[in-house]
Each structure stands twice: as structure tokens, then as C-alpha cells.
Design a protein that fits this description.
globular; 2 domains; seven-stranded parallel beta sheet; five-stranded parallel beta sheet; alpha/beta; Rossmann fold; binds 2-keto-D-gluconic acid
Length: about 325
């Protein structure tokens, strides 16, 4: 009998979907209109869960899966899974550690360049025919902010933070970072206090885990970043007080923001739609064929290993 696996978010790579279907009985919870009825029908037989980093799984759903052995997160963030609860119940939680580092770092740099060079605004300027039909071509577009040499402050110097640092350093950017403590063997400047880091940076890039669930970037930090400063978030929306960010952008208290993640995805504060100082992405930092294939393979390995009685390599619980 194939193990039954509850699927809480879609898998976009066809070969990974096929492999999952071959190995397991997949139960696509995320597609169900009546989720409660679906859980009632299948919950008792579920041995594994596949979910996304942002989606995670609630305790309420987990509580209805008495035979569950593993929650395989198709992502690196496990903040939407109650790890303490899973540990208590002996449920393994796995993440696709290392698989998406390069893509997330690439997007962080791409987003920052897009924001400070006004790439999306310029694209719209061309696309809408304004360039072609303007009496004074280029005149209406303000000059942009140079990226090379910007002072970069990285919040969270884990795998992604370090990959961002390597890339930014190649553009001649001085790097500072904050983390729970200074990291041994790292040459970048450590700044313990986030507000101080913001004050010393032209751009703050968020690459931290959000397990604490706290909005660490608030009005105070944004004020310190200042009217020439940019905020980039490729981590989690909940790391930022979104109301404070919107207010700071509207009042010009920061120069711009580039956001891949939001507090209540897919809801994005609508006032940002018309704001040319902001570059918006629908949580796509890991969304390349190559990375999603690697992530999918790791998810499959987590399930296979667990059901075979082996500890999966990306296990974050035990
Ligand atoms: C993914 C993520 O988009 O890694 C994470 O924690 O949030 C993202 O990389 C998501 O997990 C895909 O399902």
C-alpha cells in the first residue's frame, strides 16, 4: 500500500508531480472546496504532508492527522509550522535547505537594482508608448540611483544572506550585517542593533528567518534608513510592519522598496500599486525550473526516507 500524503500547496514541476503520484497516494487538500470534509474523509490515513514555506500547516490540521510522520516543507522557511508541537508529537519537519540559496540571493540583488534604477517604471514608460510619443524623450523620467557601491546592510547572515553579500561585494558594495550574534570567520562588519545598521546603510536587505514571528522592521528602523534608503524583502512579509512601510513610502521617508513577500499573501496593500518607488513580486524568489526541481527532489527524498525509517537530510526537528 502506498503511503498517503496530504498536499497543501501546488507543485509546479510536472516530473516532480508524476514522481509523487507514482510513489504515494497524493491527497490535494489545497484544491478542495470543503477542506473540513476532505480531512474528515482522509485525515486518519495521512502519513506525510507536503506544503510550501509560506503555507506551512496549522496545529488544527495537524491534530486531525493522527498517523502523520513527516511534514516536508517545499521551501527553506519553517516559520509556518509549529516546530515545538511537531517535536512533542515526534513528527519530523524537513526543509529544502540549500536548494534555493542562489535564486533568492539573485532575486534580492535583481530587485534592488530594479528599485534603485527604476527598471519597472522605465519598462512601463517604453511599453505604454510614452517614450515614443513624448515631445522630449527621456525628460519625464527622473535620473536613477546608482547601485554599484551602495552600502548594503544584510539582516540575517545565513545561507541566503551570505550569498547576497558575495554578490553585492562583487558590485563594490561595502557590506554590514546584523544577526543574533557576530558570526565567526566572517569579514563583513557586524552591527548588533538593527536601527544602527539601517542608519549606516543605503539599502537594507532582509534575509532572516521569521521563526520569532516579530515585525523587526518598523517605523523607527525605516526612519533610520532614511529618505535615500531602500528596503528589500526576500524573507517573510511578517518581518516588516507593513502599515509602517506603506506610511514611510507614501511620505517619502524612505526612497523605495522591493518586495517579494507580504504579510497576508496574496493580498498586497493596494496603495502600493500606483507607487513608482516600489517594485513588487508575487513571492517568486525560488521560482525557477532548476531550483523548484531540486526542491521537489528533496521533498520526495524526505518522504521516502521517513517512510523507510531513515532520518531525512533536511530534517529540522530531530
Ligand atoms: C517558496 C519560501 O516560494 O523557501 C521558502 O520558505 O517561502 C519559498 O521559497 C515556497 O516555499 C514554495 O512553496
Amino acid at each position: 500500500m502506498k503511503p498517503e500524503v496530504l498536499q497543501l500547496s501546488p507543485i509546479l514541476i510536472p516530473q516532480i508531480r508524476e514522481r509523487l503520484e507514482q510513489l504515494f497516494v497524493m491527497r490535494p487538500y489545497y484544491q478542495q472546496a470543503d477542506k473540513a470534509a476532505y480531512l474528515k474523509e482522509h485525515g486518519a490515513n495521512i502519513r506525510g504532508v507536503v506544503t510550501g514555506g509560506h503555507t506551512g500547516i496549522t496545529r488544527e490540521v495537524l491534530a486531525q492527522l493522527p498517523r502523520v510522520e513527516v511534514v516536508a516543507v517545499n521551501g527553506v522557511g519553517t516559520d509556518a509550522v509549529d516546530l515545538a508541537y511537531c517535536r512533542d508529537l515526534g513528527i519530523r519537519v524537513t526543509a529544502t535547505i540549500g536548494a534555493l540559496t542562489d535564486d533568492v540571493a539573485d532575486l534580492a540583488i535583481g530587485l534592488l537594482i530594479a528599485a534603485c534604477r527604476g527598471l519597472c517604471t522605465s519598462d512601463r514608460y517604453v511599453r505604454t508608448g510614452q517614450w515614443q510619443h513624448s515631445a522630449t524623450p527621456l525628460a519625464p523620467l527622473p535620473l536613477a540611483r546608482q547601485f554599484s557601491g551602495m552600502r548594503i546592510g544584510i539582516v540575517g547572515l545565513g545561507r541566503v544572506g551570505r550569498a547576497v553579500a558575495t554578490r553585492a561585494a562583487a558590485f563594490g558594495c561595502p557590506i554590514s550585517y546584523t544577526d543574533l550574534q557576530a558570526i565567526d570567520g566572517v569579514d563583513y562588519r557586524y552591527v548588533a542593533d538593527l536601527t544602527e545598521l539601517a542608519r549606516d546603510s543605503d539599502a537594507l536587505i532582509l534575509a532572516a528567518a521569521a521563526d520569532g514571528g516579530k515585525a523587526i522592521v518598523d517605523a523607527h528602523v525605516l526612519e533610520a534608513l532614511g529618505p535615500e534608503g531602500y528596503l528589500v524583502n526576500v524573507a517573510r512579509g511578517k518581518l516588516v510592519n507593513e502599515d509602517d512601510l506603506v506610511a514611510a513610502l507614501q511620505a517619502g521617508r524612505i526612497a523605495g522598496a522591493a518586495l517579494d513577500v507580504f504579510v497576508d499573501e496574496p493580498r498586497v496593500p493596494e496603495v502600493l500599486f500606483g507607487n513608482e518607488q516600489v517594485v513588487l513580486q508575487p513571492h517568486r524568489a525560488s521560482a525557477t525550473v532548476q531550483t523548484r526541481t531540486r526542491m521537489g527532489e528533496m521533498v520526495i527524498a524526505s518522504l521516502v526516507d521517513t517512510f523507510a525509517g531513515r532520518k531525512p537530510s533536511g530534517c529540522v526537528t530531530r
